Amino acid sequence: MLKIISEPIGTGRERACYVHPEDPRLAIKMPMGEVSDQTERDLKFYRKLKKRGIKGIPHVPDFHGLCDTNLGRGIVVDLIRNYDGEISRPLNWYLAQGVPIEEFDPFLEELKQSFLDNLIIFNHDMTIGNILFQKSSTGSAQLVAIDGLGDVVAIDWLDRFPWLVRHKINRRWKRFMARAHRTPEVRQQRGEMMDSGSSVPSKQQ
Prior knowledge:
Elements (H helix, E strand, L loop, with lengths): L9 E2 L3 E5 L6 E6 L5 H15 L11 E7 L2 E7 L10 E2 H6 L8 H14 L12 E7 L2 E6 L16 H19 L3 H13 L9
Antiparallel strand pairs: 1-2, 2-3, 3-5, 4-5, 6-7, 7-8
């Protein structure tokens, strides 16, 4: 049994995430209650990827199984770090620092294309807080979706048809981007721009 004594590196509505106590390259997602729908959804999502023989997608953490800890049973996934070892921060953190969301457009488009290429469905509640900005070198970076993956529909037989899956991804992506532009961080940026009379927020990445 693994013993977790560190503070979580992130928390959501249902789960907390910890650095693996024996391997700093891994993270453990732990339910904060007895049951976590997100954990069940994650397991279903990764089982489907395994069945399809898909692994090593740069924009999705790899799954490394379940583990028993002093806090209960959790799932083990890649811990997303920058090239310098720092744990990658979520997209909403950068927006809160004043980095315009438009600066992430190429990375968001790359993430969307990865979902389309690999037929990865994400659910309706995926947010910019579920997406990390990973700096893979001094001159390159990518977005990694760490939560909100998989589908929530009870009947998913239509997902056997790639063209229907891509249609669903495109439809949900459009809604996701609309929500991203309505987040408090982006609204604050827009307000600051109006107050200053500037077309670009003052802070840069």
